Amino acid sequence: MLYKIFKIFGLQKKIMNNKESISTSSSGSFHRILKNDIKKEPNNQEDEIIFGCGCFWGAEKCFWKLPGVITTSVGYAGGSKNNPTYYEVCSGLTGHSEVVRVVWDTNLIDISDLLKMFWECHDPTQKNRQGNDIGSQYRSAIFYKNSKYEKIILSSKYQYQKELDKNNFGLIETEIKKIDEYFYAEKYHQQYLAIDQNRQYCSASPTKVKLGLFKGSNYKLKEDIWEHFNWEVDKCVLRSDNYPLKNSN
Fold first, then answer.
1. In the annotation, is 55 catalytic?
2. Which of 126, 133, 121, 146 is nearest to 44 (CA)?
3. Has residue 3 got a pLDDT over 80?
């Protein structure tokens, strides 16, 4: 028993002391669908936010399809280790969650649209899991860098909880906090579902409960956009093509 304890502590020390960073070449930072740099920094009319919705493969596709989204990437955030690898995050020892970074044009899509997608595309009442994927790395999370978004994030959570209550769901377990660091995942994870012959996998378990208007909401996407995300259909995101949608005039 004592040997096992020392072995676990040894593994933890090895993981947390690993300083090697994930190599990301310029070619590795090119978005396969949106055809731009996934490491793009937001300009004055853009902003960024980070979502954890279970396995990041399917979650990223949900967001890159939305009109007004400039770029997306998958990575790790919310933990305590710099430059974690996928396998280190999977160990559960780094405290990181699998997440999607979204950069959007604030003139074309509002944060309330992004929050609508976030709440609807997975089950935020599941704690440290999403569907068959179990572990703290699959936890529901919203990480923001701009403090001005805290109020609207909490407002959307409050409203969505009311909708969940009407449908006999439990309490939202989503972690919401401001962070400074986001670490890009390995190249082979970026836009994973758009790579030929890759496994079409998504663990998300949408509640099928929709988020309507809430205090501070300012939806810019038309209703027909959301018709492309029919949560009544199992794994509807996997069944859709990879191309971004266009907002109707």
1. yes
2. 146
3. no
